[in-house]
Every structure is written in C-alpha cells, then in structure tokens.
Design brief:
- The protein is α/β, with parallel strands linked by helices.
- The chain folds into two domains: about 270 residues, Aldehyde Dehydrogenase, Chain A, domain 1, CATH 3.40.605.10; about 180 residues, Aldehyde Dehydrogenase, Chain A, domain 2.
- About 40% of the residues lie in helices and about 25% in strands.
- The protein contains 16 helices and 23 strands.
- A seven-stranded mixed sheet has the order 15-16-17-14-13-19-20, sandwiched between helices. The protein has a six-stranded mixed sheet with strand order 10-9-8-11-12-22, sandwiched between helices. Strands 1-5-4 form a three-stranded mixed sheet, covered by helices on one side.
- A hairpin with a 2-residue loop joins β2 and β3.
- α1 packs across α8, α2 packs antiparallel against α4 and α3 runs antiparallel to α7.
- The chain is globular, with a radius of gyration of 25 Å.
- The N and C termini lie far apart (about 75 Å).
- It binds nicotinamide-adenine-dinucleotide.
Length: about 500
C-alpha cells in the first residue's frame, strides 16, 4: 500500500505517531494509500525547521526569490499533466477539470514572480527639513496554511506562492483526503531552488491543526474549508494572537432575468452547478429564475442533463467524476431524497443510474425550492441544483442578501443598467455578470463576505501580499552637524 508521509526540511519524513488515514480512489471506492497523521511533536519539528530556515530566507534577495518562482512556474508548466493525473486519482475530478485547476494555481505562481515589484514601498523626501520617510513591508515569520480537499493543488498555491515570495517560511496541513499532489509540488519547489526548510508539509487531522493554532512560533494562519471549521480556526487562532484569514463555505445564487439569453444561461447553470460534481466553493447551487421564464429555463436545463457524461476522471470524454467519499455521496443524496418531503419537485433525480463501484451520483435538478427547505438552507457541496422562482429582481436580491453566505453570485441579463445596479446592491464578495463562476484572476483577490470569510484580508493577489507581510515606516535623518541642536519640543514638520 502506498504510504504518504510528511515533508520536512526538504525531504520526506516518515510519520512517527502511529496514526494514519485512508486515501480512497473515489472512482472505485477502494483504499489506494495511507497518509500519516502528525502528532504534536511532528508539527513542532516542522515548525522548528521552518523557524531555523527563516533568517537566511528572509535575507535572500528579491531577484533570487523571483528567480525561484520563475523556475517553479516552468516546472509546474512542464508537469501539468502529471499533477492533474495525480490529483484526479485521489479527488476524482475529470482530467480536463484537474488541468484547469493546475492552470489557475499556476497563475498565482506567476503573480508571485513579480514580488520585487509587489513589495516596493513609497518614499517621501524632505518630510521635514533633512528628514525622509518611507515604508517597507516585511514577512511575518513562520506561517501556516490549512487546505480543503476540493482543490488540492490550487488552494495551497494560493497561499504558499505569496507567503514564500514575501520571505516567510511555510508549514502546510493539506486535506487528508487527497494529499499526494502537495508532495509532488514540494519536490518541484526543491528542484526550483527553494532552500530546504522554507516549505514543509505535515499531514493529519485536528491534532495537527490544533497544534498549528496554538504553536507560539506560528505568526499567521491561512485557512480554506467549511464554515464551522473556518469559524473555529479564526476564533482559536486570533485568541492565540495570530493573524488569521479563514475562508468558509458557500451557497452561490445565479439570478436569471427575463431578458437574458436563456440558452446561454442554461449552459452556464449546468456547467457551474455540475462541474467538478458541484464540489466547488464557487459552484452555482441555487438558480433564481424569474417566474416569466422559469418553465422555459428549467426545461432547457433538464434537456442538457442527460448529455453529461459521468464516470471515472481518467477516462477520456467523461465530464463529471465521483464525489470525494461514500459518506459525502450519501449525504448529498439525502438532500434530494428530503426535497420531495419538504414540498419541492425533483425534476431530475441523480440517484438513478449512477455508475456502480465508486462514490458516484448523477446530476440532480430540484424545482419549486423555497427558503426553509434543507436543500436551500444548507451547503450541499454536490451535483444538485435548486431552482427558486422569483417574481422580481428585488425578490432575487433580497434572497441573496439574506443568505448567511456571501461567496459568489451571478446575474444573467442583457440590461447593463440592471447589472450595474446588481453589483451595487449585492452583499457578496465575488460577482459575475453573465459569468457563472467569477473566480478572480490572480492579480485581484479571492474572498467572500459574511459566513464565507472570517478575517479582514482576502486570499492571494494584493490582499494576499498584505496578509503575509506587515508594514514598517522609517523616519530618517542623516547627521548634519550644521543643524544639530537640543530641542525638547515635540517633533514638528513646519
Ligand atoms: P473541511 O472544513 O472539512 O476541511 C478543511 C481543512 O480543515 C482540512 O485540512 C481538514 O483536515 C481540517 N479540519 C477538518 N475538521 C477539522 C476540525 N474539527 N478541527 C480542525 N481542523 C479540521 O472542508 P473540506 O470538506 O475539506 O472542503 C469543503 C469545504 O470547503 C466546503 O464547505 C467548501 O465550500 C469549502 N471551500 C471554500 C472555499 C473558499 O474559498 N471559500 C474554497 C474551497 C472550499
């Protein structure tokens, strides 16, 4: 059986805790590997290694740090297919989707190649006579990343690219469900020239996470996962004096107005609801259909669903793979089962005809959904699209704004004025106008509002640079014996 161990000080470190977890092949349901679960002493070793590597790394000049990021960019580009295959095997997503994940992660490495420019401060000459003032941004120290199963390559790249380029050293606790890809990328970081100890991985569960949250040498924690855990990470980490950004779950609504191109809206809804089996935090899970076009739109979506090819991610032509575990598949199926009892109408039931053997579920479409039903109120995180019929733009906006989550949303309309009003009105962090999955490009920042993000800084891009650095302002005067005198007054500029 394949064994996945930690990565400490530039090499694989076999686990010593005696605890481990099973890694499934979701397409067959079989256990294909075991992953070591770190205990406190193993986390402490990783943090101590990162701390020892910090002085030399933060003193490494910006050109060299950029060069390493450029090298990494080339290596990831050259190994795209291998990375995608590795993550698809443990996550289950189809290869084309896995390649898309690698590509979006690579954007973050490319952003980090510009770190010399990104860390430039500002300078005010002659702020007072002979006095200059300037600001610089410095790394925080040893920082940690804790990541979810659904983007096992991309989400760690969101974090470590910026953290490491800014001069921090890093300890990653990836999802225990699909951990192999992080080990592969660690090897690439080493080949790219990153000094040993700058990037470390501890695998595991709550034991490892809790140690990172209370370790006195961890300065900041970047987290992505479900809302209850994000809230716990934020509260515990900040209570322990750490800087924390914790991204949580989502319930993304797509509002379709009567003037929208309905075929385009149906294509977008199907792609965004069922891509990656709905296991995306930016997946569309609620369709708000204006009542005048709802029948037509639901019909168009229903027509498209049977064409979606569901099967193992590594078989060419498949468009949707299995869910991550059998337990999760059963939970998602439970929402479809419960919908009829709650008064909704199951138009397409994904429990029918799913491939045998793995954790498969086909796409489901539920109409006449209302707030108060479990399939509306809760994050399902599976291939289930709920349709809520609304009588007006205002009713749609009210529903979105009263939802506990605020990760992503989209409006489909041809009316530019209404779209502009939507971007003004809506209490959501990432908005699409005729774009169903508006994941920001790497030079903007990613993050939701409300229960989708705890903390002040969004992930990657300019806010990522802010998160992983702290500002310092220097006020300087060079000695000039001609102007020197004793002055007990408060320093003034005029
Ligand atoms: P999860 O919250 O179960 O796990 C995330 C991480 O937290 C993992 O590393 C896991 O080992 C750890 N963890 C789990 N339980 C813990 C506990 N009790 N104490 C401490 N650590 C714990 O999330 P998941 O199932 O891996 O991922 C799916 C969730 O992530 C969904 O809710 C999805 O919306 C969310 N997500 C959000 C974003 C975003 O950007 N907002 C992106 C991707 C995924």
């Amino acid at each position: 059986m394949k064994r996945i161990s930690h990565w400490i000080d530039g090499k694989v470190a076999a686990g010593t805790s005696g605890r481990c977890g099973a890694v499934f092949n979701p397409a067959t349901g079989e256990v294909q590997a075991e992953v070591d679960f770190a205990d406190i002493s193993e986390v402490d070793r990783a943090v101590a290694t990162a701390k020892a590597a910090l002085p030399a790394w933060r003193a490494t000049n910006l050109s060299r740090r950029a060069e390493i990021m450029f090298n990494l960019r080339e290596l990831i580009d050259a190994n795209r297919k291998e990375i995608a295959a590795l993550l698809s095997l443990e996550h289950g997503k189809v290869l084309s989707d896995a390649l898309g994940e690698v590509s979006r992660g690579l954007e973050n490495i490319e952003f980090a190649c510009g770190v010399p420019h990104l860390l430039k401060g500002s300078y005010s000459e002659q702020a007072s006579s002979g006095v200059d003032v300037y600001n610089i941004r410095q790394p925080l120290g040893v920082v940690a990343g804790i990541t979810p199963f659904n983007f096992p390559a991309m989400v760690p790249m969101w974090m470590f690219s910026t953290a490491v380029a800014c001069g921090n050293t890093f300890v990653l606790k990836p999802s225990e469900k699909d951990p192999s890809v992080t080990m592969f990328v660690a090897e690439l970081l080493k080949q790219a020239g990153l000094p040993d100890g700058v990037y470390n991985i501890v695998h595991g569960d709550k034991v490892a996470v809790d140690r990172l949250l209370d370790h006195p040498d961890i300065a900041a924690v970047s987290f992505v996962g479900s809302t209850p855990i994000a809230k716990y990470i934020y509260e515990t980490g900040t209570r322990n004096g750490k800087r924390v950004q914790a991204l949580g779950g989502a319930k993304n609504h797509m509002l379709v107005l009567p003037d929208a191109d309905l075929d385009m809206a149906a294509d977008a809804a199907v792609s965004a609801a069922y891509g990656s089996a709905g296991e995306r935090c930016m997946a569309v899970s609620v369709l708000l259909a204006h009542e005048t076009i709802a029948d037509s739109l639901v019909g168009k979506i229903q027509e498209r669903i049977p064409n979606i090819k569901v099967g193992p991610g590594d078989e060419p032509g498949n468009e949707m793979g299995p869910l991550i575990t059998g337990e999760h598949r059963d939970k998602v199926a439970g929402y479809v089962a419960g919908a009829t009892k709650e008064g909704a109408r199951v138009v397409v039931d994904g429990r029918d005809g799913a491939p045998n053997g793995g954790f498969f579920l086909k796409p489901s479409l539920i109409d006449d959904v209302k707030p108060g039903m479990a399939c509306y109120d809760e994050e399902i995180f599976g291939p289930v699209l709920s349709v809520v019929r609304v009588g007006s733009y205002d009713e749609g906006v009210d529903l979105i704004n009263s939802n506990q989550y605020g990760n992503g949303t989209a409006i489909f309309t041809r009316d530019g004025g209404v779209a502009r009003q939507f971007q003004f009105d809506i209490n959501v962090g990432m908005v699409g106008i005729n774009v169903p999955i508006p994941v920001p490009v790497s030079y903007y920042s990613f993050g939701g509002w409300k229960a989708s993000l705890f903390g002040d800084q969004h992930m990657y891009g300019p806010e990522g640079i802010n998160f992983f650095t702290r500002g310092k302002v220097v006020t300087s005067r060079w000695p000039d014996p001609r102007t020197s005198k004793v002055d007990l007054g408060f320093p003034q500029n005029r």
